[in-house]
Amino acid sequence: MRFRRRAPDLPQGPGTSRRSMQLVRNLYERMRLMTRVYKVTALVLLVAATAMGIRVVVLGRREAAGRAAAADIFHQLRALDLQVARLQASAPEREDFRRRRAALEATYDEWIRRLGEMQNGRPDEQAVRATVARFGEARVLVSDRFIRDVRSKVAEWRRTPDFVNALRVAGDSAYPRRIAAALDTAGLPAELTWVAFQESRFRTRAVGPVTRYGVAKGMWQLMPATARHYGLRTGPLVGQDRFDPGDQRHHFDAATRAAIRYMDDLYLMDAQGSGLLVMACYNAGQTRVLRLLRSLPATPRDRNFWRLVERYRAEIPDETYYYVVGVVAAAAVIAQPEAFGFSAREVAS
95, 102, 198, 318: which is deepest, by most CB within 10 A? Predict the structure, then answer.
């Protein structure tokens, strides 16, 4: 016979009820304590989050104010530079301009230092901003969108060997160095060298498609009317999309001199000292972009690439916007290759 084990009897009586009630009370008090702890913790977290939010807003406003102040000083510097560039070499006002410029530059550098302490941008972002400044535009106004577009262009170049190969061929001919020296002599940003890269990959025999304005030819892809305006002789094949040895647009020295004179005219007057606006005009043709530019007040503060894009982005062809992106990207990579994942040897030109 199997015996089933009997469960032990539970204690009964008044003592048991008191103990049970005490357990319930203890549990209730513990729950109340935990609730208070949770509420206090939640309140502390809420206060901390609010304080952090306020700090972010305050810092954001301070940074925005700093950017605006730095941009204003930068535009004053550009206005002074333009005035000096338009003066005769012996003009007595030059010394006064130098003193004023030195004072403004010191103030601008201090603002850039302060903003740098607020910002911790990636190396490629800082490289883009520095390149834009060399083109004559305020580095503090560069948009996040523009920086992303430059990164995308560089990423595109990294996927194929075309970019590095083009630089290697150009370096063998020494064209980039010769163009940069000529630009510097003319008082233009040396970074405009990379307009020739964007136009033709530095190929003197380059020929564009047939258009209603004619056929662009040569390293600088000058249209016939522009070439003739700046003293170049077009050849017998001027209207055909073929290399023409009799066309001076295919001659490096003559075409480079003409292209620099063209860019210099744009730079000093309509572009208000902005290399980015020079590029936009160069790509889109004078009439289209100049019509938009001339609707803006003729000062560096009001007539710059960022203001043009802000007001007229829908009217600016995507090709022109990304043309500017491409030239800035090339100049930035050449200046700081490591920031974009290239070695100095890869991009030596």
Answer: 198
DSSP 8-state symbol, 251: S
Which are the contacts of 278, defined by CB distance < 8 A and separation ≥ 6? 192, 263, 266, 267, 271
Amino acid at 46: L
Cα torsion at 183, 187, 192, 197 (round to 10°)? 0
pLDDT interval class at 300 (50, 70, 90): confident
CA distance 138 to 221: 29
Query: What is the pLDDT at residue 57?
Result: 41
CA distance 76 to 300: 8
- Token representation of residue 287: 């009439």
Burial environment of residue 300 by CB neighbours within 10 A (0 to 12, 13 to 18, 19 or more): buried
Reported as a pLDDT band with limits 50, 70 and 90, residue 56 is very low
Beta carbons of 333 and 154 less than 8 angstroms apart? yes
**Rounded to two decimals, what is the model's pTM?**
0.74
Token pair in block for residue 316:
């600016």
- Closest C-alpha among 65, 87, 85, 67 to residue 75: 67
**Whether 255 contacts 222, CB under 8 Å:** yes
| Structure tokens belonging to residue 151 | 């990164």
**Structure tokens of 201?**
């990959």
